[in-house]
Amino acid sequence: MTTMKTTDNSGDVRLSGISKTYGSFTAVHPLDLTVPQGSFFALLGASGCGKTTTLRMIAGLEEPSSGTVRLGDQDVTALPPYKRPVNTVFQSYALFPHLDVFENVAFGLRRRGIKSVKKQVEDMLELVQLGEQARKKPHQLSGGQQQRVAVARALINHPQVLLLDEPLGALDLKLRRQMQLELKRIQTEVGITFVHVTHDQEEAMTMADTVAVMNAGRVEQLGAPTDLYENPQTTFVANFLGTSNLIEAEVGTRSGDDIVLEAGGGKLVLPAARCSAPTTAGGRLLVGVRPEKISLTHADDAGEIPEGRNRVTGRIADASFIGVSTQYVIDSPVCPELDVYVQNIERDSRLVPGAEVVLHWNPAHTFGLDAAQDIDAGLEEEAA
Ligand code: ATP
Hints:
Layout: E1 13-22, E2 25-35, E3 40-44, H1 51-59, E4 66-71, E5 74-75, E6 86-90, H2 101-111, H3 118-127, H4 143-155, E7 161-165, H5 173-190, E8 193-198, H6 201-207, E9 210-215, E10 218-223, H7 225-230, H8 235-240, E11 245-255, E12 258-263, E13 266-271, E14 284-289, E15 295-298, E16 310-321, E17 325-332, E18 335-343, E19 356-361, E20 367-370, H9 373-383
Parallel strand pairs: 3-8, 3-9, 6-7, 7-8
Antiparallel strand pairs: 1-2, 1-4, 4-5, 9-10, 11-12, 11-14, 12-13, 14-20, 15-19, 16-17, 16-19, 17-18
Bound molecules: adenosine-5'-triphosphate (ATP).
Adenosine-5'-triphosphate binds at residues 22, 27, 45, 47-53, 199.
């Protein structure tokens, strides 16, 4: 099978100051973004955050209010969609119902007047593992198979960039998970730049090598999935990607590379390098820690907790056994609800609702966020 891996930059997507306003409403604030050739890039955000509008501006289906779109070295801002080296796969697939799988995939080639399509179509069907289904009509296929036809039909045009607009949205959960891995495999094989729009954080993290988290028309943070998860820079990202415990704290002293904070009468240590908030002594910030990073020890065994860990005391308010882990909600003086996920390896039968506990974690897993951020964002929203 021939692959389409290239080493040039023709599949770079460069957005410069691109924005979209509808009357007085700004759907996308001026945005600068570079998606390197060959990467799997995801625009992730809640409904209405502007991700589809951004994708449509790359496709040429929406005219930007400002800024430019470049593909490789070419400025395509003024080009209509069909003249851009881009193809889009939509959630609805938009397959031709009267044509079989082979002819659906061959469509783009035939339209360009190419006569001998057999080899290319067969290669493409092999890529998406539909060789056996070539003579079926779309209605005779499962949702996942239809989705793969839509991908094959787009890829056969050798676009420099493939845009995917919630392409897995119509599939049930199990099939979605399967197709995520399948799409990732296809992208690795063909080496084309994929720009994927989704509201599903797990989907974005599974497939993409770079994720841009969008909120209210702006990219809040951009990075590799692990980086976004481990080092969120805003409260929105901390809560949109998984779950975060956020504790209000006051900045105390500096100790080497760490900041010592005060929260609920106790002290917490935060590596200065993991703090995106101002750290003036006496200032307030939010201390974050992921639920799975926390260990739970019954208060009777508190003496066994090693030195140097961040500690918070509390009482178990709720415990849910969910198989691989038990999810606890802890009522604590520093925060009324802290989430803790404990893997079910050796379960402590004393850890039941009402039990007094100590939560403790490695300070290296702590991150610091600007406490004023949400208030500022709220005021901005109100003013708009
Ligand atoms: P979803 O996941 O629901 O598709 P999204 O993040 O893709 O959401 P967009 O479709 O990009 O969001 O829309 C961003 C904002 O722009 C929304 O508030 C939407 O209502 C608004 N919007 C989109 N198209 C238009 C339009 N043609 N006229 C006015 N407002 C629009």
